[in-house]
Design brief:
This protein is mainly alpha-helical. The chain is built from 8 helices and no strands.
Length: about 190
């Protein structure tokens, strides 16, 4: 039997009965126009071919659920459009994900590098502070780490505020020389 003369409704009826030749005839009738329609909106030959194949595969796999009263051309155009929209959405999600991943990688490397440098600098400063003379180190740590005023340190250690001020000044001078001006300016 030749399928060039049956109407779309007749082809749908035959398709519902599992007639593969009906599908082939529908494919012959509509493949070219569907491809052109899709390609005008999305000029990627391989992707458009895949979309068209998916539409016809979907028709075959869901032939039992097709209504023989529907307009086949409208159904096919709508199916192609919906599949294209799905492709666009998928690409957009993929691009957003890749952009987000790249941002994380870029920022993550910088954050990790900065954290490592900061830890190294803190370790270096702590080593230099630990090498200060004992009384000077205690006064300096009370001033900088505990945020105590010179008066409070003097009262705590039972020394004069002038001694506290001198010890802090001397500690800062020593640390500036040992750490260098740049590192010193970061921390003090």
């Amino acid at each position: 039997m030749t399928y060039k003369s049956p109407s779309d409704q007749e082809l749908l009826h035959l398709l519902k009965q599992g007639d593969q030749y009906a599908l082939q005839e529908i494919y012959k009738r509509y493949h070219g126009v569907l491809y052109s329609h899709a390609y005008r909106r999305y000029p990627d030959r391989e992707e458009v071919r895949d979309i068209i194949q998916e539409v016809f595969l979907h028709i075959w796999n869901n032939r039992d659920h097709l209504h023989t009263s529907m307009h086949l051309s409208a159904y096919l155009y709508t199916s192609v459009r919906n599949r294209m929209l799905n492709v666009f959405r998928h690409k957009k999600v993929k691009e957003l994900y890749l952009r987000s991943l790249q941002d994380f990688i870029d920022k993550g490397e910088n954050v990790i590098e900065a954290q490592l440098r900061e830890k190294e600098l803190i370790c270096l400063v702590e080593q230099e502070v630990a090498q200060l003379p004992n009384q000077m180190r205690i006064i300096f740590e009370m001033s900088r780490n505990l945020h105590m005023s010179h008066q409070e340190i003097a009262a705590e250690l039972d020394i004069s505020p002038h001694t506290v001020r001198t010890q802090v000044r001397n500690a800062l001078r020593i640390l500036r020389v040992k750490l260098g001006t740049y590192i010193f300016s970061i921390f003090f």
